[in-house]
Design a protein that fits this description.
Blueprint lengths: L1 H17 L25 E9 L9 E9 L11 E5 L14 H4 L4 E5 L19 H13 L6 E3 L2 E2 L1 E6 L1 H17 L6 E5 L5 H5 L7 H11 L7 H13 L13 H4 L5 H6 L9 E5 L7 H11 L2 H5 L2 E5 L19 H7 L3 H14 L10 E5 L5 E4 L6 E11 L6 E7 L2 E15 L4 E10 L6 E2 L5 E5 L3 E17 L4 E7 L15 E15 L4
Helix pairs in contact: 1-6, 1-7, 3-4, 6-7, 12-13
Pfam families: Peptidase_S15
GO molecular function: ATP binding
Protein name: ABC-2 type transport system ATP-binding protein
Length: 527
């Protein structure tokens, strides 16, 4: 208990230092800017709440509260599409119409709502559970379907787009999948989710190794609003204290694997569902909570092939970002791909995307059916797929597991251009129990000055001793153009500050033999 209390104090400290990072994108926000010019006077604003399903074990309905913005000229004779918006974790709805000027001035209605457990809404946050938040989103869609000034495709089916990042991206995918599951069609006509997840357990605790900094921040962010169910708050602290994701196997601990099983696109995909609607996916390349590969997994698995032809993927430098010092990463916030595609930021790109997908207007928008990924040097790389197409034999990689410094192994000399997924295959030997090491791609002139391409590493975890076992080791997805005079390295480290306290439980060495790096090479790069 003393250990958990200490971690709770650490969580509060981290929240003070970094809470504003929750839900951030390039330029500091994924929501429309709070500093936009004043909205048109003709915009009508109304506030209200809808009743949704009770909390577990309770009988009283839960209020889900919203602010509704009706643009100038919208009427029964001139109905307009609606854009739904919601906030990131620890936030609340936007009530100032000036924040939505971009969409309101373009003639879209906007509905911004407090998610369950946050703001003025009741209940607890079940982290986008179909049984709770899924009902909440459906109740809001029902509300919109009864507004005479909103364009309707059929009874109960309004013309809908959606915006928001992090937790505000999770509700979008949840809402579309839930209406697909319950009604046979997604109801939402186009989405623009940013820096959100595919599978919560794999993003919060890859290989069962907890992203400690983020688990503590998420727990701390829920305290002021009493947003989380007590069992989930307890489980986040248990994960940080015990060194692995709670799965109920330790007596007296919670089961987060079961709690989060259905809370993301991965569950719907596993049950045979894919979205057949256009999606503008924005993901942070330097995101330490929901990394680039979470967005790539949504692109690859959550959308049909036809939907991908009408969709766009943008990776930008930003997201949920904390300083990357151990191992050393990069520090950059930029969105060159939105600028290249739309001549502006992600919000401007979203507007043009919705104009084409919700209104059928031709705006000259390019980039459909492609992945556009920012590099740490503020360039934009474009590729048709994130799947690997190149392999490099790099031999033996040995890593101490409890102490030592990160070690770099040469992969390739520049110039080389890489964009997409990456992984290792290797024969693994580890003598200890709960041996762990962390791997990522880095760029520098030598192993001594090499920096992680996009601030991320992923763990290899061996719970029991192994000798020569062939493993597939996932690496963080990347976008990078390595110039002449610099090199691409595989960086192996015994620790990571993102996974603070998650290093090996026993000292020793993890040895990878006959190691092969698989990556997507998109071009030779520029000298």
């Amino acid at each position: 208990m003393r250990r958990v209390t200490a971690l709770a104090t650490t969580a509060a400290t981290l929240a003070t230092l970094g809470l504003t990072s929750l839900g951030l994108g390039p330029g500091g926000t994924v929501a429309p800017s709070a500093y936009a010019a004043p909205a048109a006077k003709q915009v009508r604003v109304s506030d209200g709440c809808v009743s949704s399903v009770p909390e577990p074990g309770e009988s009283d309905a839960v209020d889900i509260c919203y602010s509704l913005f009706r643009p100038a000229g919208a009427s029964r004779k001139r109905p307009v599409p609606m854009i739904v918006h919601s906030h990131g974790w620890g936030g609340s709805r936007t009530t100032d119409p000036a924040a939505f000027d971009t969409f309101l001035d373009a003639g879209y209605g906007v509905l911004s709502f407090d998610q369950r457990g946050w703001g003025e809404s009741g209940g607890h946050a079940h982290v986008e559970d179909p049984a709770f938040e899924g009902h909440d989103v459906r109740r809001l869609v029902r509300l919109v379907s009864r507004l005479r000034w909103v364009q309707q495709d059929r009874p109960g089916d309004p013309r809908l787009g959606a915006i928001g990042g992090s937790y505000g991206g999770g509700y979008q995918l949840l809402g579309a999948f839930e209406s697909l599951r319950t009604q046979g069609r997604p109801v939402f006509d186009a989405l623009a989710p940013q820096i959100t997840w595919n599978d919560l357990s794999s993003s919060l605790a890859p290989e069962g190794v907890v992203r400690t900094e983020w688990a503590l921040l998420l727990a701390a962010a829920s305290v002021p609003d009493d947003a989380l169910p007590p069992t989930v708050y307890k489980a986040l602290l248990e994960g940080a204290a015990l060194g692995q994701w709670p799965d109920g196997s330790v007596p007296g601990t919670e089961d987060m694997v079961a709690f989060m099983e259905k809370n993301g696109p991965a569950w719907h995909v596993a049950n045979g569902r894919r979205l057949d609607i256009p999606v503008l996916l924005g993901q942070g390349t330097t995101d330490g909570l929901f990394p680039l590969q979470e967005g790539l997994a949504n692109w690859r698995t959550a959308l049909t092939k036809r939907a991908r032809r009408d969709s766009i993927f943008v990776g930008y430098n930003g997201g949920h970002v904390l300083p990357a010092v151990l191992p050393m990463g990069v520090s950059i916030t930029s969105d060159p791909c939105s600028a290249e595609l739309a001549g502006g930021d992600f919000e401007q790109l979203s507007l043009r995307f919705f104009d084409e997908q919700l209104r059928g207007r031709r705006t000259g928008l390019r980039g459909y059916g492609r992945l556009h990924i920012a590099t740490p040097t503020d360039e934009c790389l474009t590729t048709r797929t994130e799947r690997t197409n190149h392999r490099v034999d790099i031999g033996t990689v040995a890593t101490s597991t409890a102490a030592g410094v990160p070690l770099g192994t040469l992969v390739a000399e520049g110039p080389i251009e890489v964009a997409g997924s990456a992984y290792l295959t290797a024969d693994v030997t580890a003598a200890g129990v709960e041996n762990r090491a962390f791997y990522g791609l880095a760029v520098g002139t030598s192993p001594l000055d090499a920096r992680l391409v996009q601030n991320n590493v992923l763990p290899l975890r061996e719970p029991l001793p192994v000798v020569g076992e062939r493993r597939r080791i996932q690496l963080p997805a990347v976008g990078v153009r390595v110039p002449a005079g610099q090199n691409l390295y595989l960086l192996a480290s015994p620790f990571s500050e993102t996974f603070v306290g998650m290093s090996s439980r026993t000292p020793g060495v993890i040895v990878l033999e006959d190691t092969v790096l698989h990556l997507r090479r998109t071009g030779p790069g520029r000298a």
